[in-house]
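Q: Convert this sequence to C-alpha cells.
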Amino acid sequence: MIQLCEQHGITPLLPCDCQETSPDVIRANNLSMLASASAIIANLNPFRGTEVDTGTAFEIGYACALGKPAVGFVSDLEPMETRVERLCGPLIESTDSFQKRDRDGFGVESFSLPTNLMIAAGIPIVAGSEIHALQALLGGHVS
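A:
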C-alpha cells in the first residue's frame, strides 16, 4: 500500500509509524498527522466486537471536522443489524425508532448500513481493502 501511494504521488502517514509509547504523545502525533493529511483512508472492519475501532472512529470525525476527504473500507458490506445478530444473538423486534434491540435491550440501527450511520452517512464506504479505498479516493485511477 505504501508503494502504491508513492507511485501516485501520495505520501502515506500511518499512525503506527510513531515510535513513542506515551498516550499523550501518540495522540498528539496522530492529531498532527491528521491535520497535515490531504485525505484519510479508514479501516472500518469490526474491531473487538461489532463496530469499527473507536480510535479510528474518532480520527474519522476529527478529519471530517477539519474538512478532509475520507473514504472507508470494509471487507464485507454486511448491514449492522445482520452483524449484530450474527455475533450477539437474535434481535428483538421493537415498536420504537430503532425497530430492533439486542439481547441487552440496546437499540440496533436498522438502516442496512455497514457501520453506524454517523460514519456510513458521512463518508463513502467501499467493499474490499485499502487499495479499493484508494481507488475511490483517486476516482478509480489506481493500477
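The chain is about 35% helix and 15% strand.
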